[in-house]
Automatic annotation (TrEMBL):
Organism annotation: Polarella glacialis
Domain of life per record: Eukaryota
Annotated Enoyl reductase (ER) domain residues: 114-486
Pfam name, any one: ADH_N
GO molecular function terms listed in the Swiss-Prot or TrEMBL record: oxidoreductase activity
Name the record gives this protein: Enoyl reductase (ER) domain-containing protein
Amino acid sequence: MLKFSGQLPNQSSKPLRVTHSGVAANSLSEWSGFRRVLLGKGPPALGSVTGGLAVLSCTAALAKSLRLQRHWRRSSRLKPLRAGAERKAQAQPKELPMTPACIRKAWVFPPGAGDIAALALREEAIEDPVLGEVRVQVQAIGLNFADVFTGLALYGPIASGEVGSEAGGFVPGLEFSGVVTSIGIDDRYPTAKRAHGGQLCELTPEVWKLARKAATGFKVGDRVMGVLRFGAYASIVNAPAHQIRHIPDSWSFEEGAAFLVQAMTPSYALHELGAMRPGHTVLVQSAAGGCGLQAIEICLKLGVKVVGTVGSASKVPVLLERFPSLKPEQFLVRGSGRDFEAQLRAALLAVGSPHGFDIVLDAVLGDFFQPGFACLAPGGRYVVYGAASMTPQQDSLGVLGWAKLGWQWLQRPWVDPLSLPGVNKSVMGFNLIHCFNNAELLSVLLEDLLNLNLPAPRVGHTFRFEDAVNALRTFKTGMTTGKVVLKIEDST
Ligand SMILES: NC(=O)c1ccc[n+]([C@@H]2O[C@H](COP(=O)([O-])OP(=O)(O)OC[C@H]3O[C@@H](n4cnc5c(N)ncnc54)[C@H](OP(=O)(O)O)[C@@H]3O)[C@@H](O)[C@H]2O)c1
């Protein structure tokens, strides 16, 4: 039997009773070590707290299983109370074993680096997951354009150093797949801006409630895929459980890491903003890319006509192979300006929709916006979710890069909001990154997406985890098809 005693922080004036059943008369939440013992599984612990003094007894095995020793060793206020037989038997307090720190590999951009080449692999300690978080041994990581833009320091909070600087850097990555290795039990809320092992996003207590409920749906050994508000380029992550789902049995880890962001993006654009219905005709820009392929899958699932565009002829065979039910006339290699508009009108005739597109999905922008907008049907919705045509091709912007970006910015397409009611068309935009602040919406979007039962995504390019810099360079050329993933070969 071990005994512990200590001063309860902020509890000195509040007597607190603890019963055999482990239910405290008032909250012990500020002292999670005790709370874990009291509310944990196993034989009941017996304790009492009066006038700020807490005394707790439990078996050594229970204390060990609940990691009380570790808490005791960390807390300067909590000391072992050796009494009676134990005091005689233990002249010196025994060195209690500590859980070794968990070390992971993570790719890190130094604060405000603005250079893809600055991405560095480092080993770092990762804190234990908290209640509501699931620890995942990562097997594969999906690349997204957000990783490129954070690397170039074009993503505001990172460029300003608001995010990542505390931790000496910023770990990119929005999605991953892997195996659950532990479920958090520590019921403290994590502090804001956890750069190590978790996402760079402060979640509210309401969100943690949702995460804690979701955590009960996972167990050690589960194959999962998940989304993070960055932090996924790592061999181990702690993720809030409501941001994780099981990988379908027949899918590989690479397919799991390739799915959620790139399918949720067009799903949100088509359903929430586009109000897509059977009979509609949809234009998908960058149709052979990760989001583009998923957009077409969703359209076909719901019996919607689709036209896809690509920037290079080499991508068309990929589309025809993936979608054998579609005709070559439904895919076009974008020409410029008026040529592009003529191409779009020909494709509309080919699919029997001369009235125009009901929805346009565009993450390319540049010169391709106006022709697409012109081909929008009355009542149509033009959904903008990126600007890939502005992607700098070098590792860092430099003076010339900034000048080019500035020129592209000056030439960006314009829409007069006053004209929209007259032409009876809408222009909309979104960024899914904001869903992390709206956990209920994120959960609903994930559920809706999984209910579509889409086929496994097409993984076009797989790089070793150690080749992350090359993977990012290849991805941002715009010549890739399907999803680009990093595979962790030795994830032990
Ligand atoms: N708003 C959101 O929440 C959200 C979420 C995820 C992704 N996105 C955006 O969606 C777009 C597609 O994402 P993804 O991950 O599926 O990527 P992707 O489509 O696999 O790759 C991007 C594509 O952009 C096209 N592109 C056009 N001009 C380019 C240029 N100058 N440099 C590079 N690429 C160029 C290329 O296809 P073609 O040349 O064949 O058109 C390229 O394959 C990206 O712009 C991304 O930022 C937005």
